[in-house]
Specification:
The chain is α+β, with helices and mostly antiparallel strands. Helix content is 17%, strand content 44%. InterPro entries: Ig-like_dom (IPR007110).
């Protein structure tokens, strides 16, 4: 006589049940939320559409922000929320009257803490299914500047500075339509003081050049440029040479005096 464990017996019963004609299971048909949204705006909706088979029971809908559960709905009970969306949700009648087809979280206003990956999980007694999508809450830059400063007789220093953008942006220096690769980036404690600077030391341009600083915020589509037209200034080179000559004379004099005293 063959003996079956309780676990194997349950699996066999479930397999027989879900292969019966008319069984459709659970399927998420739509997961919709903004890809990017401006901080402080709203309302917005997080929509999870799904289809439940006619034999399914024990429906539980959950939403997660990254790894934290922020929402649970067990119809016909009202939804329960916690975490970053606590106190910021509202539920219109049309959003809660079809528990077998969709779950909609309506956020009255978004904030920076809401950036992250959102997961909608649909559970029944027989199945669990989940889908995820990322949303980024952003703040545009408050200030974007591009500077061209004299570096030495043959080179200039290009500086791009952005302040206030969140999350941390990407800066690009572009000269006459070409992106520069020889650049350095400086970021200091961006979480508390959103400030970023990018520099590039390049050969001086003898002809007028269009220099641009471009800022982009990853995951948002936000893009902005500031530009200046650089003209080669011969006077700056002349002034630079005049500043070098006295220091060069002093250096030569010091070497000469050192030589005299060492041989005296």
């Amino acid at each position: 006589m063959r003996h079956f464990s309780l676990k194997n017996l349950i699996i066999r019963i479930l397999l027989i049940f879900i292969t019966q004609p008319g069984y459709n299971g659970v399927k998420i048909t739509k997961l919709k939320l903004p890809l990017a949204v401006h901080n402080g705006t709203g309302p917005i909706e997080l929509i999870c559409g799904y289809r439940i088979g006619r034999h399914e029971n024990g429906l539980v809908v959950k939403w997660f922000h990254d790894l934290e559960q922020i929402y649970q709905w067990i119809p016909p009970m009202p939804p329960q929320v916690n975490g970053i969306i606590s106190g910021l949700t509202e539920y219109l009648p049309e959003n809660t009257n079809k528990p077998l087809s969709h779950s909609i979280i309506r956020l009255k206003k978004v904030n920076l803490a809401m950036t992250g990956v959102y997961t909608c999980k649909i559970s029944t007694i027989l199945e669990d299914i989940a889908e995820s999508r990322r949303m980024t809450v952003y703040v545009p830059d408050q200030k974007l500047n591009i500077y061209a400063d004299y570096y030495n007789n043959t080179h200039i220093n290009l500086t791009c500075v952005a302040k206030g953008a969140r999350p941390s942006p990407i800066l690009t220096i572009i000269v006459d339509g070409k992106q520069l690769d020889n650049r350095s980036i400086r970021i200091e404690n961006y979480r508390n003081y959103p400030w970023i600077k990018q520099e590039a030391i390049v050969s001086n341009y003898s002809n007028p050049a269009i220099i641009q600083c471009e800022i982009t915020i990853p995951g948002t589509g936000y893009r902005k440029r500031e530009k200046l037209i650089y003209y080669y200034n011969k006077q700056l080179e002349r002034n630079y040479n005049l500043q070098l000559r006295p220091s060069l004379i002093i250096a030569i004099t010091n070497v000469f005096l050192t030589f005299i005293f060492s041989n005296g």
